[in-house]
Amino acid sequence: MSVEYKNYINGEWSTAGTRRTFENHNPADNAQLIGTFQNSGRGDVNYAATSARLAQRGWADTPAPKRAELIYEIGNELIQQKEHIAEIMTREMGKVLAETRGDVQEAIDMAFYAAGEGRRLFGHTTTSESPNKWAMSKRVPVGVIGCITPWNFPLAIPSWKIFPALVAGNTVVIKPAEDTPHTVMKFAEICAGFLPPGVLNFVTGYGLDAGEPLVNHPLIDFISFTGSTATGTEIAKSCAAQGKPYSLEMGGKNVAIIMDDADLDLAVNGVIWGAFGTTGQRCTATSRTIVHEKIYDKFEQKLVDTAQKLKVGDGLISEIDMGPLINAKALTKVDSYVMAGNAEGADMLCGGKYIPSKEDPLFLERGHFYLPTVFANCNRKMSIIQEEIFGPVVGLMKVKDLDEALVFANECDYGLSSAIFTQDVNKAFRFVEHTNTGMAYVNAGTIGAEVHLPFGGVKGTGNGHREAGQTMLDNVTEWKSIFFDYSGKIQKAQID
User: Fold this and answer.
1) Residue 482 has what pLDDT?
2) Predicted local confidence at residue 57, as pLDDT
3) Which end of the chain is more exposed for a tag (fewer CB within 10 A), N or C?
């Protein structure tokens, strides 16, 4: 018998006003029903937004260090439930337990990092151009934050958005991806044990039914979105029409550059982790690899040999290296890009298919499994080099030097993450200076963000905002300038 999970609004668990639900299945075994969730609509979003608005003033009036104490408590509870949440997440979205434990750990790290800002919501004091006058500024909360979060990091990414918002004095309405409502529901359940009613509200449903009303609701003051470029573009249009501020974290087409002096084993392991970690379902995934011609053949062979040894299957099994794709639609999309790569003239060296046969001990008939896939001899114009695949596919290109590599690397609509493998400090610094991405790694793969550093990219990756790091408060606060005039007269700035 399936469990029906509810929305969390105004401190209560409730069924959707639509009286509709949707099913959530394990991507490693479609026959396994995780539960049913509320297929919420406009009325449910309105209830959540109204509750958040009513709670916001009282929450903002709570001293920031007190708000922070509650977030610390949430972080401690996440520690206690880390393994349980990791298992829920693996069962729900597929990535292996080592990765889901890391996802939970990132939320823990963000809880403590954000909570620390409860005593560091610093403003500025400065001089005034007038005598007997003080000038200063302070951060103030935006109000009600609407969060729309993806399925690939179903705890880490909500934590990036929610914890900074809460410590700054905002209230939140979150709508998680329909593929991972269970993990976010568990997060909301933990938060509910510490936060006042209405401060955090959790609503499940599909984009058109629940996401669109959230974006367009007049009581939502700011939209924070992580997801596809197509959806993010539509959100940008909607928010612009309302004059509503928003932050977007969208796609990536990330590159690793392998120079001729690179530690080959290190470079191969970095590309393997970047290309096939989370089954390639990361906005930071390494889907382009540019290799110096002097070592191209050696690198190619090592990469293929390593990729072919990866064990694909249910992420709950300890010996598995790579789990399933999130759903059947993703499986079809990845396979279409593989076919496009073949049609465009790239050489497929391994993978390129579903788990091959029922005789394979890792075969699961009802799962969304695809083999790690490597293409060689790619050119700059191929779709597998220019477009985001969001699956376990990486393309190799050959270059003669770093200058050519940088041209190839920057010739892309996205600009999230890039990496170089080299022992030459001069090449490393040239790369860091000239790669057109929001994050750059030296002798490490394209994945590996840390919560105390800004996360985000340029070009088609986002709209200039950053999450995490010291910049995390910029999305969820406004600045208020304050002037104290004790001269006893009206002083006319710029005139007197």
Assistant:
1) 98
2) 98
3) N
Assess if CATH 3.40.605.10 describes domain 7-250+462-481: yes
* Same fold yes or no, 7-250+462-481 and 254-442: no
Closest CA to 321 of 99, 91, 85: 99
Which one is catalytic: 92, 99, 178, 249? 249
Task: Give the model confidence (pLDDT) of 214-237 as tens digits.
Answer: 999 999 999 999 999 999 999 999
Torsion of CA 300, 301, 306, 308, to 10 degrees: 100
Using 50 as the pLDDT threshold, list the residues of the chain that sit under it. 357, 362-363
Task: Give me the pLDDT at residue 364, please.
Answer: 54
Residue whose C-alpha is closest to residue 307's, from 329, 290, 293, 286: 286
Residue 375: closest CA among 351, 409, 398, 346: 346
249 is catalytic: yes
Which among 213, 60, 239, 215 is positioned nearest to 142, based on CA atoms? 60
The bridge status of strand 133-141 relative to strand 124-126 is: antiparallel
Collapsed DSSP state (helix, strand, coil) of residue 403: helix
Instruction: Give the torsion sign (CA, 161, 164, 166, 170).
Output: negative
**Contact between residue 447 and residue 416 where contact means Cβ atoms under 8 Å apart:** no
Q: Are 41 and 65 in contact (CB under 8 A)?
A: no
CATH among 3.30.160.270, 3.80.10.10, 3.40.309.10, 3.40.50.720 for 254-442 = 3.40.309.10
Coil/strand/helix, residue 100: helix
Cα angle: 291, vertex 278, 451; to 5 degrees? 90
CB atoms within 10 A of CB 402: 23
- Contacting residues for 63 by C-beta, under 8 A, at least 6 apart: none
The closest of 353, 278, 234, 311 to 96, measured between CA atoms, is 278
C-alpha to C-alpha distance for 490 and 496, rounded to whole angstroms: 10
What is the greatest pairwise CA distance in the chain? Answer: 89
Distance of CA 289 to the CA centre of its chain: 22
3-state secondary structure 416-427: CEEEEECCCHHH
Which residues face 467 on adjacent strands? 455
Output the DSSP codes for 312-359: BS-TTSTT-SB---SSHHHHHHHHHHHHHHHHTT-EEEE--SB---TT
Q: Of residues 147, 191, 283, 378, which has the active-site annotation?
A: 283
Instruction: Tell me whether residue 239 is one of the annotated catalytic residues.
Output: no
Q: What is the pLDDT of residue 156?
A: 98
pLDDT of residue 218: 98
| Contact call for residues 121 and 139 (beta carbons, < 8 A) | yes
How many Cα atoms occupy the beta-carbon half-sphere of 420 within 13 Å?
28
Domain locations along the chain:
7-250+462-481, 254-442
Whether residue 310 contacts residue 276, with contact meaning beta carbons closer than 8 Å, is answered with yes
What is the SS3 assignment for 13?
strand
